[in-house]
């Protein structure tokens, strides 16, 4: 069994399903075909890095509108444009991360 593909950058139109891990240990599952994002909540919140805090709607699928700059790059913070982060407002917002540590394609 081969290791899933890791890349240094990712564009919104690359397609596929990816896991983006940040310097703080947060993980985001991006489905670029369905244009969705899920910030994966840790099983044990005590294992979180000191600078990784829980966010509203962790573990829930949100609409991924795009990336600021149209590109995610290892070593730079990611800024995701998402829709549905608020339970009470149908609004589009930005979610910024710490530096991206790894971008890895999930096997299909």
The helix/strand class is mainly beta
- Calculate the terminal CA-CA distance, rounded to whole Å: 13 Å
Rounded mean pLDDT score: 82
Physical arrangement of strands within the biggest beta sheet: 3-4-5-6-8-9
Q: Count of helices?
A: 0
**SSE string:** EEEEEEEEE
Count of beta strands: 9
Please give the share of residues in helix. Answer: under 10%
How would you describe this structure in keywords?
108 residues; mainly beta; six-stranded antiparallel β-barrel; two-stranded antiparallel sheet; 9 strands; globular
Detailed description of the structure:
This protein is mainly beta and 108 residues long. The chain has one domain (6-105). 0% of the residues lie in helices and 47% in strands. It has no helices and 9 strands. The strands form 2 sheets. The chain has a 6-stranded antiparallel barrel. It is globular. The two termini are 13 Å apart. The model is unreliable at 43-52 (pLDDT under 50).
Concise synopsis of the structure shown:
The protein is built from no helices and nine strands.
Per-chain topology:
Elements: E1 6-7, E2 9-11, E3 17-22, E4 27-31, E5 36-40, E6 62-67, E7 71-73, E8 77-83, E9 92-105
Antiparallel strand pairs: 1-9, 2-7, 3-4, 3-9, 4-5, 5-6, 6-8, 8-9
């Amino acid at each position: 069994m081969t290791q899933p593909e890791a890349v240094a950058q990712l564009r919104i139109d690359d397609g596929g399903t990816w896991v983006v891990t940040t310097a703080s240990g947060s993980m985001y599952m991006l489905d670029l075909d369905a244009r969705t994002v899920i910030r994966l909540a840790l099983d044990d919140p005590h294992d979180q890095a000191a600078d990784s805090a829980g966010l509203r709607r962790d573990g829930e699928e949100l609409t991924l509108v795009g990336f600021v700059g149209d590109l995610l790059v290892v070593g730079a913070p990611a800024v995701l444009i998402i829709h549905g982060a608020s339970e009470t407002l149908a609004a589009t917002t930005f979610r910024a991360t710490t530096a991206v540590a790894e971008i890895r394609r999930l096997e299909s």
